[in-house]
Write a structure and sequence with these properties.
The structure is a single chain. 40% of the residues lie in helices and 17% in strands. By secondary structure, it is of the alpha/beta class.
Length: 383
């Protein structure tokens, strides 16, 4: 079987990007042929057996590049057919969409003003989402969180049988502290002192993931927590705006910014708490990674994986609608509560569930089933 995946931009630390490589490796392990269409690829090709096709889709604006990307892929796939075309981003003409992103129509109506919906950017993204989810197309949809299906159905009346839920797919290395690590030396390397609490914020897309909320809560900590708590911010994003915010709040000396890193397992075991006060988070794999590492977490209820944290009692879930003062108090509780050891133990126990590692396996089971059902390579073409 030959499967083609489509992705606008690859960088090694993004959630959708990491999921893509899990799917690619599972397909290759089963003997399938894999092609990946990418507009940008900011890393060495990770799999020698993977055919990487770079899509020449230039343009000054994202939506212009993405429209050209979809048209070029459609033309190339007609000339070089595959058994299944899988989108990691929303675009017309897909056999399967991997729903790693939330509902754009919902965000446009709840997080943006009416004028936003007059922009060309809105028209593009709304159209591409509509072409995936409208009731009269055959695109199958792989969902990664329970809240996704009702929201898409609300806007597009998508038939229920086109949705296929996936379990999480945590990397098992998050559960075990790296052997032989010297925490004192590691803290010095990270710019930390010998004592004090360490908060961890991980995720590319600082605005969407609520870094402003996290910095505000850090600045509001009561003494002695305030002067003894540092925050590590890790993600492939521009930190300039948030460095300025940290300076305004008086916490710049306690906030350390890093781009994407390969030592996340070590950070999970060094830190005292994870914080993810997202405005919008489809899943939040780092929540589960923190849990199995025994790291208590404070996350907002709109994160797709927040229910796992609540059910396991491995930290705190801040209720929606978000309230900054409540979140500030919850952060202090996360760091000082006498329940911390219980949260740690509960998170590690959660890691014993084999189902939380099976995303790629279940997803490729679905892809194999879908490929057997696809009658021909002819597909709806982008408008």
């Amino acid at each position: 079987m030959q499967i083609a995946f489509c992705l606008y931009k690859y960088f090694p630390y993004g959630g959708i990007q990491r999921d893509l490589m899990k799917l690619v490796r599972e397909c290759l392990a089963r003997g399938h042929t894999v092609r990946v269409y990418a507009g940008e690829w900011n890393a060495p090709p990770p799999e020698a057996r993977m055919e990487l096709v770079m899509v020449p889709a230039a343009g000054l604006r994202n939506h212009t590049r993405y429209a050209r990307f979809a048209r070029w892929v459609a033309q190339h796939a007609r000339a070089h057919p595959v058994d299944l075309l899988v989108g990691m981003n929303k675009m017309p003409g897909l056999d399967v969409y991997y729903a790693g992103d939330s509902c754009y129509a919902e965000k446009a109506r709840t997080q943006r003003g009416a004028l936003y919906r007059l922009l060309p950017r809105y028209r593009h993204f709304a159209h591409f989402e509509h072409e995936v989810f409208r009731a009269d197309v055959a695109t199958e949809i792989l969902t990664i969180a329970d809240h996704q299906q009702p929201t898409f159905v609300k806007h597009y009346a998508t038939p229920a049988e086109r949705f296929h839920p996936l379990p999480p797919g945590i990397d098992r290395d998050r559960a075990v502290a790296p052997a032989g690590s010297d925490d004192a030396a590691y803290r010095r390397e990270l710019g930390l002192g010998e004592g004090g609490r360490v908060l961890l914020f991980v995720g590319s897309g600082f605005v969407k993931k609520g870094l402003d909320r996290a910095l505000t809560a850090l600045a509001a900590l009561p003494e002695p927590l305030a002067s003894s708590t540092a925050m590590l911010v890790v993600g492939s994003d521009n930190p300039a705006r948030f460095r300025r915010m940290a300076a305004r709040l008086g916490v710049a000396a306690r906030v350390h910014f890093f781009s994407g890193r390969d030592d996340i397992p070590r950070l999970l075991h060094l830190a005292d708490g994870l914080v993810l006060p997202a405005y919008d988070e489809t899943a939040g794999m780092v929540i589960l990674e923190a849990m199995i590492a025994g790291l208590p977490a404070l996350v907002t209820a709109n994160c797709g994986y927040a229910p796992y944290l609540a059910e396991a009692d491995a930290g705190l879930v801040s209720a929606e609608p978000f309230d900054q003062r409540t979140f500030n108090a919850e952060l202090a509780e996360l760091l000082a509560s006498d329940q911390r050891e219980g949260w740690r133990a509960n998170g590690r126990a959660f890691g014993a569930n084999p189902q939380i590692y099976r995303l790629a396996e279940v997803a490729v089971d679905y892809l194999e089933r879908f490929a057997r059902a696809v009658p021909s390579p002819d597909r709806q073409q982008p408008a």
